[in-house]
Amino acid sequence: QVQLVESGGGLVQAGDSLILSCAASGRTFPPYEMQWYRQAPGMRRELVASISSGGITYVADSVKGRFAISRENAKNTAYLQMNALKPEDTAVYYCAVDSDGTGSLDSWGRGTQVTVSS
User: Is the pLDDT of residue 27 over 90?
Assistant: First the structure.
């Protein structure tokens, strides 16, 4: 099973930027699709962005224009570039993967906290 480790979270001020990383290990080939989710206190977990091994991306409307997703297949790592952060971006950010293109997520990371102060 794929193991995922997120990093890069922290406490920032509104308007700042952060880059989150998600490193996948435990398999030879890069995961088919890597996704970033977030969950704020009392809220449902929501999909923020996703990227396929071929570079096809999706970014949620709520963050479009501010967030970007990328990946380095050679490093089995995905990134979430977050710019112009707002207090409402405060959440735990999770990485998840669909390793083999089944359409189902098979691994989740433990998450990294992002807190944006006003």
Answer: no
